């Protein structure tokens, strides 16, 4: 229940849940971290800290270059928070790193990249100064349009690829890759 716009308080189900969180955040080995996070998800699927767990999983899968899991976990996060900037950026950057991207993966990457390309201003993180945000936006737009152009090029949709690559160059004229 929310009172006067306040979010409900989060609580650990018990000490064991908190211990799993602590172990996951302190694990130096990413494979071990994923094992702990999966154990936490199995034991506490309805955790008040589900979003934090998913974000830890997302970043760890990305570090391990398990791009299929990045997209799967990212899609789950977007089901909870469709404007999660970190998730959209990681999913978009994954698009050009998967050697044999499936149509389903392509659709997830395109959805993330399009969200960044069309609605970036609504995703400004709280606490980020306007000048810092304005400085970082071209990099994010460049990533979104470059990824969309790359995927269109792979699909032999040359007109769409050219449109996206042109938009990428508008965001960052020094983009040597494009």
In short:
This protein is 67% helix and 0% strand.
How would you portray this structure in words?
Helices cover 67% and strands 0% of the residues. With 178 residues, it is mainly α. The protein is globular and about 55 Å long.
Set out the fold topology.
Layout: H1 15-26, H2 30-43, H3 50-63, H4 67-80, H5 85-94, H6 103-119, H7 130-154, H8 158-171
Number of strands: 0
The rough form would be described as globular
Percentage of β-strand residues: under 5%
What's the helix-strand series?
HHHHHHHH
Could you tell me the mean pLDDT? Answer: 93
**Rounded radius of gyration (Å):** 18 Å
Please bin the fraction of helical residues: 55-70%
Oligomer state equals single chain
Largest sheet: none
Structural class, by secondary structure, is mainly alpha
Q: Give the distance, in angstroms, between the N- and C-terminal Cα atoms.
A: 49 Å
Which residues sit in consecutive blocks of at least 5 with pLDDT less than 50?
none
Number of helices: 8
Q: What key phrases describe this protein's structure?
A:
178 residues; mainly alpha; 8 helices
């Amino acid at each position: 229940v929310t009172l006067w716009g306040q979010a409900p308080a989060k609580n650990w189900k018990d000490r064991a849940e908190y211990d799993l969180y602590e172990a996951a955040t302190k694990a130096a080995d990413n494979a071990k971290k994923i094992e702990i996070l999966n154990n936490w998800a199995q034991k506490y699927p309805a955790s008040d800290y589900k979003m934090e767990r998913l974000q830890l999983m997302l970043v760890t899968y990305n570090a391990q270059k398990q791009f299929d899991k990045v997209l799967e976990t990212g899609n789950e996060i977007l089901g909870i928070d469709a404007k999660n900037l970190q998730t959209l950026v990681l999913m978009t950057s994954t698009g050009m790193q998967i050697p044999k991207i499936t149509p389903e993966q392509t659709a997830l990457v395109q959805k993330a990249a399009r969200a960044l390309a069309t609605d970036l201003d609504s995703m400004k993180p709280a606490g980020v100064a306007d000048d810092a945000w304005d400085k970082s936006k071209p990099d994010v737009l460049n990533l979104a349009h470059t990824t969309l152009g790359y995927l269109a090029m792979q699909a032999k949709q040359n007109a769409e690829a050219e449109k996206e690559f042109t938009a990428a160059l508008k965001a960052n004229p020094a983009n040597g890759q494009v």
